[in-house]
UniProtKB/TrEMBL annotation:
Residue span, Lipoyl-binding domain: 571-646
Keywords: ATP-binding, Biotin, Ligase, Nucleotide-binding
Protein name listed in UniProt: ATP-grasp domain-containing protein
Lineage: Bacteria, Bacillati, Actinomycetota, Actinomycetes, Pseudonocardiales
Domain Biotin carboxylation: 1-443
Organism of this sequence: Actinokineospora xionganensis
Keyword ATP-binding: yes
SUPFAM superfamilies (UniProt xref): Glutathione synthetase ATP-binding domain-like, PreATP-grasp domain, Rudiment single hybrid motif, Single hybrid motif
Length: 649
């Protein structure tokens, strides 16, 4: 019997396992890096052990430190979560050799599925349809996909459309794979421009029972990472006989390697219902909540039960209704999905349940952050998974979009508006989703803010009025005099803000007769945190929150973040024309140019590594690199000048 479990992970998945373990009466142990000292997963655990350092290589990827932490804390089992060491066979073997219970599949199963090259050969022999691997030296037909053999989550993956790109893509994939997984092996397979990403959740016990619990569709992706997942799959629902064939292939895959525990068999399918094996993830998936919502199962509880040797029932429960999950990321989709970092001042999503299925139709939130959390640069920028369950797919999409719109997420830019637009898109609602969804429907359109420029202007007005109310409330003398009061009126109140669409200059006065200077708008009520306006006869409510340098305004128009520009510019902030600034804190991992070199617009100059991904920095114009201020291995802060390119005249 497991009495105490250490989760060899962080953030959301650690909190998820702790929730179930607590329900079962199992004591919990967290491990944490220095960067995660104040993380909610540390507070959730009964016991916590520090892993000195910040980066994954120093902390969560150090299996020896994790096992020693389990010993020190008195844990008798280790749950790996997902990512990090979850599919590392050597770590699993070391856990077992240390006399601890490994909450995962047999070491041999991890080894056989750990290499995507060998696993495809094994699946082909078991009768599971696969895509062929290609020799890098013999590739002639494009496009192809370069993939990390030991990887997942889109890391170590590159699309290549020409022979000229191949060598650089292989080098980049190897570098990223080695950094993320400690294994730089890559392989190449044909790339299908469009397709459906369908996966089957399997559960297997040590007594020979194998469940195909249900399928999930995860076709809407960015950078080969899933963004929206759902169960059941719209494609499978409308394709006769496809579910039976998928489940049969998944069970064959699990049986071929003597699988035990929770795993996922992933397939790439076309619109006709044909499918091909991609990989088997020998762990719990990020998107497991949608399967839990439609089946009523607790997959973590089943993992723990199977690890203790308990048998599964003969058949899994029947699925009901529809569940959709979105991954809420701290990122800017319009800027090539650039990850964001910084203080998360406020994080509130109205949900019926956290880390558990809602009792009825409603919202579940699995999150690794809370209000006040710091979104750092060392780990994945996912803030939360927001999941809806409803009797039908349309209702689930509507409910989820509404919950996202009403969420209060202040301090970092997110993909929230993009998620809402996708959930409301006619193609999504029709079930026409594939891996080219963003390309087909235009990322620029989907990533546009929900609040348009007019909505931003009204939000800026509300922020200005709320700021005035806050100043009046804080006044130490004459606090009862109306804000901005003048015996002799000379000019209106003027406040300036910057937003996604540009600068907003708000000019207004508040007199005995109310708000003046803003046509078509009447002020109904105001406080430092709430402003009610009559806009062309319609009552609008704006909730306003102020933080250092920014104001966040939430309304039915959408959420608007306004930057408050400094009254006086600091000369030290001036940078030379053509300067390339670091978009985030990170590490310079490669440099492809030198001072004095002529470069073309769009030519890569260097690569930064941050938040588990590589980010390419390109020349903005054709010209000459007049300055290159960094070298491989340098740590840079956001806004640092990396290089200067002087445009050709």
């Amino acid at each position: 019997m497991i009495t105490s479990v250490l989760v060899a992970n962080r953030g959301e998945i650690a909190r998820r396992v702790f929730r179930t373990a607590g329900d079962l009466g199992i004591a919990t142990v967290a491990v944490y890096s220095d960067a995660d000292a104040d993380s909610p997963h540390v507070a959730d655990a009964d016991t916590a052990v520090r892993l000195p350092g910040n980066t994954p290589a120093e902390t969560y990827l150090r299996g020896d430190l994790v096992i020693q932490a389990a010993r020190d804390a008195g844990a008798d089992a280790i749950h790996p979560g997902y990512g990090f060491l979850s599919e590392n066979a050597e770590f699993a073997r070391a856990v077992i050799d240390a006399g601890l219970v490994w909450v995962g599949p047999p070491v041999e199963a991890i080894e056989r599925m750990g290499s995507k090259i060998e696993s495809k050969e094994l699946m082909a022999a078991a009768g599971v349809p696969v895509l062929s691997n290609m020799d890098p030296d013999a590739v002639t037909d494009f496009p192809v996909l370069v993939k990390a053999s030991a990887g997942g989550g889109g890391r170590g993956m590159r699309i290549v459309r020409s022979q000229a790109e191949l060598a650089g893509a292989v080098e980049g994939a190897r570098s990223e794979a080695g950094s993320a997984f400690g294994d730089s092996t890559v392989f190449i397979e044909p790339y299908l421009e469009t397709g459906r990403h369908i996966e089957v959740q399997v559960m297997a016990d040590r007594h020979g029972t194998v469940w195909a619990v249900g399928e999930r569709e995860c076709s809407i992706q960015r950078r080969h990472q899933k963004v929206i997942e759902e169960a059941p799959s719209p494609l499978v629902e409308r394709t006769e006989g496809m579910r039976e064939r998928l489940f049969d292939a998944a069970r064959k895959a699990a049986a071929a390697i003597g699988y035990e525990g929770a795993g996922t068999v992933e397939f790439l399918a076309d619109e006709s219902g044909r499918f091909f094996f991609l990989e088997m993830n020998t762990r719990l998936q990020v998107e497991h909540p949608v399967t839990e919502c439609v089946t009523g199962l607790d997959l973590v509880a089943l993992q723990l039960s199977i690890a203790e040797g308990a048998p599964l029932a003969a058949e899994p429960p029947v699925s009901r209704g529809h569940a959709i999950e979105v991954r809420l990321y701290a990122e800017d989709p319009a800027a090539n999905w650039l990850p964001q970092s910084g203080a998360l001042h406020r994080f509130e999503i109205n949900a019926l349940a956290s880390f558990a299925n809602p009792a009825g139709a409603g919202i579940r939130v699995d999150s690794g952050v809370v209000s006040g959390s710091l979104v750092g640069v060392h780990y994945d920028p996912m803030l939360a998974k927001v999941i809806s369950w409803a009797p039908d797919r349309t209702s689930a999409a509507r409910s989820l979009a509404g919950a996202l719109l009403r969420a209060r997420v202040h301090g970092v830019r997110t993909n929230r508006d993009l998620l809402v637009r996708v959930l409301r898109h006619p193609a999504f609602l029709a079930g026409d989703t594939d891996t080219a969804f963003f390309d087909r429907h235009g990322l620029d359109t989907l990533a546009a803010p929900i609040a348009d420029k007019d909505a931003e202007s009204l939000s800026a007005l509300a922020a200005a009025i709320a700021d005035t109310e806050a100043n009046r409330a804080a006044a130490k003398v004459q606090g009862r005099i109306p804000a901005g009061w003048r015996n002799v009126v000379s000019q209106p109140q003027i406040k300036r803000f910057e937003s996604a669409s540009g600068e907003h200059e708000v000019r207004y006065r508040i007199t005995r007769d109310g708000l003046s200077g803003v046509e078509g708008v009447r002020l109904l009520a105001s406080s430092p945190t709430r402003v009610e306006l009559d806009v062309a006869g319609v009552r609008r409510v704006f909730e306003v929150a102020r933080y250092p340098g920014i104001a966040c305004v939430d309304s039915t128009f959408g959420s608007v973040t306004l930057t408050v520009p400094p009254r006086f510019a600091d000369p030290a902030d001036h940078v030379a024309p053509g300067s390339l600034l670091a978009p985030m804190p990170g590490t310079v991992i490669r440099v492809a140019a030198e001072a004095g070199q002529r470069v073309d617009a769009g030519q890569p100059l260097l690569w930064l590594e941050a938040m588990k991904m590589e980010h390419r920095i390109d020349a903005p114009v054709t010209g000459v690199v007049s300055e290159l201020t960094v070298s491989p291995g340098d740590q840079v802060d956001v806004g640092r000048v990396l290089a200067v390119v002087v445009e050709e005249s």
